[in-house]
């Protein structure tokens, strides 16, 4: 059954292949020019004396991945429910609601990961970085874990509102919150102590810390890995229940 959902992704991609590829290539270049060049000239090293460019790299990849996920989730859980009502048709299949949400979520992560890997390559070239294949694998795993949390948040939002303006305004606010609360661009040492103490407990912050801990220290923090994973899986189940109630209405 998952093959049918993957084929659907491929069919949708083929319909907008030129615009999608242009966006996938241009986005990391713009982010590099807007963030890396400017911030990199101000901050050269992290508090722990690591290269800031190398420390920043996973954060930039996670930002790109988040941007890639937004239109995918919007299309699958908002547009197909509110406008074309295709989601209602999909819900009539023998699939359970948890399977439907799970398959749509899984294929969304696959699509976003493929696009984000293009951005990873572009960032490596523009930032003149050298990372091992193992480090890149860690980032890809973190990317999917991060995407699991972000996607579930967007799915919840998509199912709770029927107004497109509300969806995009809240999404924009959430996007900014994720960027500045997940230690993607700046270390928490630059934040007030009380604020950083709270932000460190967010699942998105745990993922970025888990990834950098592996890259720079070779330490696998099981708490920072399993906690976001557990939250993501439970959230997926909650969204399945929410989808069932929303479609009943």
TrEMBL record:
Q: Give TM regions.
A: 21-43, 55-77, 98-124, 136-160, 167-186, 222-243
Question: Which organism encodes this protein?
Answer: hydrothermal vent metagenome
Protein name, entry field: ABC-2 type transporter domain-containing protein
This protein's UniProt keywords: Membrane, Transmembrane, Transmembrane helix
């Amino acid at each position: 059954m998952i093959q049918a959902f993957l084929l659907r992704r491929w069919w949708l991609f083929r319909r907008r292949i030129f615009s999608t590829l242009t966006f996938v290539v241009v986005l990391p270049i713009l982010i590099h020019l807007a963030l890396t060049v400017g911030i990199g000239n101000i901050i050269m090293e992290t508090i722990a004396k690591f290269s800031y460019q190398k420390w920043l790299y996973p954060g930039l990849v996670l930002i790109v991945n988040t941007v890639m996920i937004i239109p995918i989730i919007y299309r699958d859980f908002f547009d197909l429910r509110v406008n074309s009502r295709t989601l209602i048709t999909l819900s009539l299949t023998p699939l359970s609601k948890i399977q439907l949400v799970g398959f749509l979520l899984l294929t969304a992560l696959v699509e976003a990961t493929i696009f984000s890997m293009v951005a990873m390559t572009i960032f490596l070239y523009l930032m003149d970085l050298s990372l091992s294949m193992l480090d890149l694998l860690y980032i890809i795993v973190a990317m999917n874990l991060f995407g699991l949390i972000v996607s579930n948040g967007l799915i919840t939002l998509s199912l709770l509102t029927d107004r497109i303006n509300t969806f995009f305004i809240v999404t924009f606010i959430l996007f900014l919150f994720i960027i500045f609360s997940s230690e993607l661009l700046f270390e928490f040492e630059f934040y007030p102590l009380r604020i950083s103490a709270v932000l460190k407990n967010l699942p998105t912050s745990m993922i970025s810390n888990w990834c950098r801990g592996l890259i720079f220290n070779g330490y696998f923090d099981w708490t920072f890995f399993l906690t976001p994973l557990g939250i993501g899986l439970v959230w997926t189940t909650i969204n399945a229940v929410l989808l069932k109630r929303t479609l009943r209405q």
